[in-house]
Design a protein that fits this description.
Order of helices and strands: HHHHHEHEEHEEHEHEHEEH
Oligomer: single chain
Radius of gyration: 25 Å
Structural class: alpha/beta
Low-confidence stretches: 1-26, 39-45, 195-206, 329-340
Mean pLDDT: 75
Helix content: 25-40%
Shape: globular
Largest sheet: 7 strands, mixed
C-alpha cells in the first residue's frame, strides 16, 4: 500500500522518464498531459466521495454548523434531543464516547456551564473543543476504561478553574489569587495516593456499590470504524484521517452498533450515578428490541428517537434512557451472594 502511494506521487509530475514503459515513446498533447496529471494527483477521488461533498454543500444543517462554529452537523441532533428530554444541567459530569470531531462535546460544554466537566474518548486523534478533556484510545480496551475511571475518580479534575479574589481591608484593593496548577507529572506521581485525611470518608445514605459513580450523563455516538487504508500523510489534529463509520451492509452496521451500545451500557453500570441519563446511537435491526429491554431494567423511562436533523435515508436512531434506577444492583454480585 505504501509503495502504491509513492508511485502516485511520482506520476504526479508526469515526466516521461518515470512513466510506464509502454508510454515512454509516446508524445502527449498538452491537454492529455494535463488530464493525466489530474488523474494521478487524485488516484482515489471516488464517486462516493464526490457525492458526499455535494450532499454536504446542499445540507442546511451542515452549512449552519459551519456558521455557528460547530464541529459537525451532529450537534443539532443532540440539541433536539436535549430540548425534548432536558438531559443537561449546570455543573454535571458528562462522558462523550466516540466524541470526535467534538460537536456533541461542544453542546455539553455549553449546557453544563460554568463548572461542568466534559470528558471525551475516541480512537481517532482529534483536537478537543475548548473546555473538553479527552483521552485518545480504543474504548473497548480494558486499560483505556481503567484510565477513564481514574480520571473521573477525582471530582475536580477536568473542571474549569474558578477565579478567586482577595480584598485588602486596609487599602480596599482587590487582587486575583493565582493558584498554581499541579503539573501532569505531579498528577501521575500521586495518582494512586489515598485522599488527604487517610481513608475514604463514608457517605451517608449511599451503598458501597454507589461509591465511584460520579457521571451524570453518558453520551455514545460510537460507530465501528473501518481499518485505515489511505490518509497516512495526515498528521494534524485539526484535520485527522476520518475512518468510515458504515459499511453499507445493514446487518453488519446494525450488529456492530449493538456491540458498541452494550459496551457503553456496561460502562454506565459502573460509573453512572442514580438518576443519571444515557444516550446512545444505534443502527436499526433485529437486535435493538433486546437491548431496549436491557435499558428498561436499568432506567425508569426509555425512548427511541430519530431527530429531524438525522438524514431520512439513514438507519441511525438513538436510545434515550432517563433516570437510572436506584435499586438496580450488580447482577453478578447478587448471584454470588445467593451461592451457598
Amino acid at each position: 500500500m505504501h509503495s502504491q502511494t509513492a508511485s502516485w506521487a511520482i506520476f504526479g509530475d508526469c515526466s516521461r522518464t518515470c512513466m510506464p514503459r509502454p508510454w515512454r515513446n509516446l508524445v502527449f498533447s498538452r491537454q492529455f498531459r494535463s488530464q493525466l496529471q489530474t488523474l494521478y494527483s487524485h488516484p482515489r477521488n471516488s464517486s462516493s466521495s464526490t457525492r458526499w461533498k455535494s450532499r454536504q454543500g446542499r445540507d442546511s444543517y451542515a452549512r449552519e454548523a459551519k456558521v455557528q462554529g460547530l464541529k459537525s452537523r451532529a450537534a443539532f441532533k443532540l440539541l433536539e434531543i436535549d430540548a425534548k428530554y432536558k438531559l443537561f444541567k449546570k455543573g454535571q459530569t458528562v462522558v462523550d464516547l466516540g466524541f470526535a470531531p467534538g460537536s456533541w462535546s461542544q453542546v455539553a460544554v455549553e449546557r453544563t456551564k460554568p463548572n461542568g466537566r466534559i470528558l471525551g474518548i475516541d480512537i481517532i486523534p482529534a483536537q478537543p473543543p475548548k473546555g473538553v478533556s479527552t483521552i485518545q484510545g480504543n474504548f473497548l480496551s480494558a486499560g483505556v476504561q481503567v484510565e477513564v475511571k481514574r480520571f473521573l475518580s477525582d471530582p475536580g479534575r477536568g473542571r474549569p478553574k474558578q477565579q478567586l479574589f482577595l480584598m485588602h481591608e486596609d487599602t480596599g484593593v482587590t487582587e486575583a489569587v493565582i493558584e498554581e496548577d499541579r503539573s501532569y507529572i505531579d498528577l501521575e506521581r500521586h495518582a494512586d495516593d489515598p485522599p488527604e485525611g487517610g481513608s475514604t470518608p463514608k457517605r451517608r445514605g449511599k451503598k458501597a456499590q454507589d461509591l465511584g459513580k460520579t457521571v451524570d450523563v453518558i453520551l455514545s455516538d460510537m460507530s465501528e470504524p473501518w481499518e485505515q487504508t489511505t490518509g497516512f500523510w495526515k498528521r494534524t489534529l485539526s484535520n485527522p484521517y476520518r475512518m468510515m463509520n458504515t459499511s453499507g451492509i445493514p446487518f453488519k452496521d446494525h450488529a456492530g452498533s449493538m456491540d458498541l451500545c452494550a459496551a457503553a451500557l456496561h460502562f454506565a453500570h459502573d460509573t453512572l450515578r442514580a438518576g443519571g441519563h444515557f444516550l446512545c446511537k444505534f443502527y436499526q435491526g433485529a437486535e435493538d428490541k433486546d437491548f431496549e429491554r436491557e435499558l428498561k431494567k436499568m432506567f425508569r423511562t426509555v425512548h427511541r428517537e430519530k431527530p429531524e436533523s438525522s438524514r431520512s435515508e439513514s438507519k441511525e436512531a438513538y436510545f434515550v434512557a432517563l433516570r437510572r434506577k436506584v435499586e438496580v444492583e450488580d447482577s453478578s454480585a447478587s448471584d454470588s451472594n445467593g451461592v451457598t
